[in-house]
TrEMBL record:
Protein name in the entry: Tetracycline resistance protein, class B
Cited Gene3D superfamilies: MFS general substrate transporter like domains (1.20.1250.20)
Transmembrane feature ranges: 12-35, 41-62, 74-91, 103-123, 135-155, 161-181, 215-239, 251-270, 282-300, 306-324, 336-362, 368-387
Stored SUPFAM superfamilies: MFS general substrate transporter
GO molecular function, one term: transmembrane transporter activity
Gene that specifies this protein: tetA_2
């Protein structure tokens, strides 16, 4: 990368670290907070599902605007909405207002995520995209390492203080983006594609059009994988509290450790794995590892064992998510904003159904969400293996070979 590219990536990384750290602050205290207002697994699932539902509905718009107006504006809008969401969460204990705040937060994320990856795609070449995506994703993971530790510490003073601090930190990211993040002009091709394809299209029409795209199967993989993984993530705090009597600090320690693993992997390993083996083989290998982790989680008999198993699962997740982003952005060809908007939409659909299903199942039996996640990961792995022999996957393998040959020369 050139010095100018590194500067832009660094600014984006700092910005994303601030934004995601603000979210990480509230993660470890959310289970205890829900218990304090007499809510259980269903409410925990709804908190995530409502957020993801709003994200699903507005992600196509976020992707379109990123292509047409530029990703900087979209990122600032997203961060501003996340700030409002956290302020609402701090201001009330009404479950219905809390749900409304999650809608606003989901809309904010629907703008933020496509904006991030459209920006990365706009300042990197295809051969640099794995590194750029890995670095930005690592900054997010670092935010999830630092944030929970701060949240666990703040909860000792007041259970709602983390929400106020989260709003302040996210507002800081808004100001930082406004001052430091410079807009990248949409290319003539991306603007033309976005105006032609996304004009007057509803979300359902855009999802219908995505069926014809060469990256449709990776979108399906994103959906099914998100369904299974988020079913696990959405109830892990409630599970630890119920099964092992874990405190907010215990949950913060686990999230911090798994986040640290994610940072290391995304900064130093994702790019090397993709360059060495290609996106599809890496995808299949780590889907298998995640499924193995789910099997182990069903037989974990202590907090320490479950902690270790979680490291395996989050290690796989840390690789799978950026690899899918890289794969889809490479296959998009001229409409990366639309593709990343669709990627967020399919992920959000899984993020809606996963927590809803997991929350309801948790209230019947605390192990059922993990069984659901295992079944869906096995399905995802089967789809990925079958798709490996398709024309689109083979074309991607050829592109990877040419990139590696060019890099050697």
């Amino acid at each position: 990368m050139s010095p100018e590219q590194r500067k832009k990536i660094t600014i984006l990384m700092i910005n994303m670290f601030i934004a995601i750290a603000s979210f990480g602050i509230i993660v470890p205290i959310l289970p205890a907070y829900l218990v304090s207002i007499n809510q259980g697994g269903t409410a925990a699932g709804l908190m995530i599902a409502i957020f993801a539902g709003a994200q699903l509905l507005f992600s196509p718009l976020g992707g379109k605007w990123a292509d047409v107006y530029g990703p900087r504006k979209v990122i600032i809008i997203g961060l501003s909405l996340l700030t409002v969401s956290m302020l609402m969460f701090y201001a009330t204990d009404s479950i219905w207002i809390l749900y409304a705040s999650r809608i606003i937060g989901g809309i904010g994320d629907a703008f933020l995520v496509p904006g991030i990856f459209t920006y990365v795609a706009g300042i990197t070449t295809p051969s640099q995209r794995a590194k750029g995506t890995g670095l930005v994703t690592a900054s997010m993971s670092l935010g999830l390492v630092i944030g929970p530790g701060i949240g666990g510490f703040l909860a000792d003073f007041d259970l709602k203080l983390p929400f106020l601090v989260s709003a302040f930190v996210t507002f800081t990211a808004v100001l930082f983006s406004f001052v430091m993040l410079k807009e990248i002009a949409p290319t003539e091709e991306s603007t033309k594609q976005a105006e032609e394809f996304a004009k007057d299209e509803s979300m359902l029409e855009q999802i219908g059009r995505s069926v014809k795209m060469p990256y449709f199967i990776p979108l399906i993989i994103t959906f099914v994988m998100s369904f299974g993984l988020v079913a696990y993530e959405s109830v892990i705090g409630m599970y630890l509290t119920t099964e092992y009597g874990s405190t907010s600090k215990d949950i913060a320690m686990m999230i911090t450790a798994t986040g640290l693993i994610s940072v290391i992997v995304q900064m130093f390993i994702v790019d090397r794995l993709v360059r060495r083996f290609g996106e599809v083989p890496v995808l299949i290998a780590f889907l298998g590892l995640a499924a193995f982790g789910f099997v182990l989680s069903l037989v974990a008999g202590s907090y320490a064992t479950f902690f270790g198993v979680s490291l395996v699962i989050f290690l796989a997740m840390a690789i799978l998510r950026p690899v899918l982003n890289i794969l889809i952005s490479k296959m998009a060809q001229g409409e990366v904003g639309f593709a990343m908007g669709m990627n967020t939409s399919y992920m959000s659909l899984g993020n809606v159904l996963g927590p809803l299903s997991a929350g309801l199942l948790f209230d019947f039996n605390i192990n059922y969400p993990f069984i659901l996640g295992l079944g869906l990961l096995i399905l995802t792995l089967s789809i990925a293996i079958a798709w490996r022999s398709s024309r689109a996957a083979k074309a991607l393998a050829v592109l990877h070979y040419e990139e590696m040959k060019e890099a050697v020369q």
